[in-house]
Design goal:
Two copies of one chain form a homodimer. In chain A, the strands form seven sheets. In chain A, strands 1, 4, 5, 6, 8, 9, 10, 11 and 12 form a nine-stranded mixed sheet that branches. In chain A, strands 20, 21, 22, 24, 25, 26 and 27 form a seven-stranded antiparallel sheet that branches. Chain A has a four-stranded mixed sheet with strand order 14-16-18-19. The first copy, chain A, contains ten helices and 28 strands. In chain A, strand 18 and strand 19 form a beta hairpin. The longest helix of chain A has 16 residues. By secondary structure, chain A is an alpha/beta fold.
Chain lengths: 437, 437
């Protein structure tokens, strides 16, 4: 089975756990049987592999997520990197061309496209497998998943069965109806459109040639910025008459808000949190190293990270986006291809950061024009390179790097943790020049 | 006017702003006309000086508060340091002896003792001035302040007027009656006992000799640990028949809980906090450098500091103490005689701290047996001494101190800020040896 997972969004609605460079799908919030936590993307990847160990998984995403994906899923997964955001038609066209041109998949093979962030059970992937089989061996151009509605939602798109004058089946698509319309649709047997599509590669390659002028991966990639911003639903699905819809009756949650995310948590508290016995229906997700104490709270979510602290009534939490957009701040933590960093202190002419390198990983060899840096190794070990000079380092070692000097650090077998103090009046993530080592 | 302010308590009930070494009276929470914030102790000291610029103020407290008092009030204030806690009779006896023996105040002069933490208006100090005058020039041994009750509280002590068989006035004292009794007392004209006493020094010196065997400051100080734990109310007031009570009708709040403290705040938010318009009666006090966002909250207090994060219904906040006692953690920030420190990161074999030295202040010259330290100066400037070697330092300079080496830092005219990385497997505040420089 070939699967394209669409991984989008900057995820302001799950602030402070998501930020401009960590989307919600990378937050480790789901408890595994072994007690460790996994993210949405890890969970869905594991579920796909459980249903089909040989599945070829490709993630369509932006450059900013590549490090996090490799950190969380390893290097087996394919990534179709979108040079910028151009909505789902361009993303699916690019990823389909990636499968054909880069991964060498035959255009007669099918692929299933699905979002990376639904909270579902394994039967969802069995349904996806059926979509795949139907697309590869059936006679329809497109096979969609229709999700059995559990309430007359005004947020989702609906797939309604429609019959033409000859009694042949067809479908109509409606986005976000009001409640009354939604109730009527459900009575008529409509299903939610979960954004899951299966097709043969040739189908979308052909659409790309017709609508974008090319189905070549390199041409799509290089001209990506000029592609029209249009959704796959609008550009392809709604104009297609040869469609099959397979219903899905299992668990399906859209974890887009704190309210729905909390419902999917196995236990009410992640991290150091305490609630007194007058609290009810309260969830705490605390990524800070200090305790959270809740007293006398009802129907609330508390979330703390180096980005900030959210205390919200669960229902109100869905209105968070404009408030978070108004908080204009430096990114306080990030996953990198080599590990992670977390800002500990912001001073007037300084920034103190904890840097964690995964075993045998290294930073880029780089320099800064406007800041000096000092590293104090606090755990693990490895090697630093400063202006070409190598040095083996262990806890307690100090490395000083004046502005302009080229530097990197390479972790040994046990990884390496260091405190980095940046010094200068113009500290910026943009002040960075990379070199070959 | 001579005043003794009793400054006690570790203040767990205002966690996370107060901790074992920062009591609630030092939290800067009251907005001054100039927009700066001041603490309870700063506010009450300023009020005393506004009513009597020549007032001699002595603070009776424990050693752990001396640095904070000097930081916040300067060096003009007298401090009677209690070697350990021995309740209010011993504290008042020691402070009275301090006034007499150390400050040379004549035993015919009066003094007023009052707690450091009531939230009151200026008329309270005019009433205190009247107590002072009455004690110095009147014919009673003790003059007390009686606070006009505003509700039948079960938390306070009551002073009830009583008449003997000859119609002469007297008073009886009752602690924490139930609500019904409290209502009855108020009908009978009882007042709250605010713990404010005025007397001539000779009166308490005499009591000290009778009850403790000495009125000598040095003998009381040196034998303090063996003094009986007993309250001044119990040891002196309740046994005294020559008492006058002056009523106080102004504002009086006991700021012992988040609920009452929030009521005394000029504005609902201190620090970086935002509330959406569905919030009502919510207070935020945020000492962390990251934003707090509250949505859909009612009747709540949110407080964040390096010690932790409290999210509490206002009424529930009065039950906080046992929960805080269960949080057994390292002290994360503290005021010192030379400035302050704040823990930024706790690692397995490391601790990262931001150290701020006030202008021209210095640490003790000291060493650690079980940890290495690294200083990175990030702002200001000054001088370090390491094993006797002096060095002028400025931002970017790095000082390394292996275990066992003697070290200190002395701030220059603009103060000095440094990031200290402690390295070792047994990092403890107790691992410190001091030396003469």
């Amino acid at each position: 089975m070939n699967i394209i997972l669409l991984s989008g969004g900057s995820g302001k609605r799950l602030w402070p756990l998501s930020n401009d460079i960590r989307s919600k799908q990378f937050i480790k919030i789901f408890k595994k049987p072994d007690g460790e936590y996994e993210s949405m993307v890890q969970r869905i990847y594991g579920q796909i592999k459980a249903v089909d160990p040989d599945a070829t998984v490709t993630i369509a995403t932006s450059k900013s997520q590549v490090s996090a994906i490799h950190n969380q899923l390893g290097s087996d997964v394919g990534i179709s990197v979108e040079p910028c955001r151009r909505d789902t038609f361009a993303a699916i066209a690019l990823a389909t061309a990636y499968l054909h041109d880069i991964q060498g998949i035959n255009e007669d093979e099918a692929v299933v496209v699905c979002p990376v962030d639904p909270y579902v059970d394994l039967s969802y992937f069995e349904c996806i497998n059926s979509l795949y089989e139907a697309a590869e061996h059936g006679d329809r151009n497109l096979v969609l998943m229709g999700i059995q509605p559990t309430y007359p939602s005004e947020k989702y798109g609906y797939i309604k069965p429609a019959q033409d004058a000859n009694g042949n089946g067809g479908f109509t698509f409606t986005e976000k109806p009001d409640r009354q319309k939604a109730e009527e649709y459900i009575r008529q047997g409509a299903l939610w459109n979960g954004g899951v599509f299966a097709y043969k590669l040739s189908y979308v390659l052909d659409k790309s040639r017709k609508l974008l002028g090319t189905s070549s991966y390199s041409k799509l990639f290089n001209g990506y910025r000029d592609l029209e911003k249009i959704s796959f639903d609008y550009a392809v699905v709604e104009a297609e008459t040869s469609i099959e819809v397979l219903p899905y009756h299992g668990e399906w949650k859209d974890l887009g808000t704190w309210n729905t995310l909390a419902e999917a948590m196995e236990e009410p508290i992640i991290g150091d949190g305490r609630l007194n016995d007058t609290c009810s229906n309260v969830h705490i997700i605390n990524e800070l190293g200090i305790p959270v104490l809740g007293m006398g709270l009802k129907d609330m979510v508390i979330s703390a990270s180096p980005e900030g602290i959210l205390v919200s009534d669960k229902k109100q939490s869905s209105y968070i986006k404009p408030f978070v957009e108004a908080i204009d701040r430096q990114i306080m933590f990030a996953e990198k291809s080599w590990g992670s960093y977390c800002v500990l202190d912001v001073g007037k002419g300084s920034l103190t950061v904890r840097v964690t390198l995964d075993p045998r990983h290294k930073m880029n060899y780089h320099s800064h024009e406007h800041r000096d840096e000092v590293w104090v190794v606090v755990s693990g070990g490895g090697k630093t390179v400063v202006d070409g000079v190598e040095r083996v380092v262990k806890p307690g070692n100090v490395v000083t790097m004046p502005a302009g000097c080229k530097h990197t650090v390479i972790a040994g077998e046990e990884g390496l943790e260091l405190i980095e103090v940046q010094l200068g009046l113009e500290i910026s993530v943009l002040d960075k020049r990379k070199y070959e080592l």
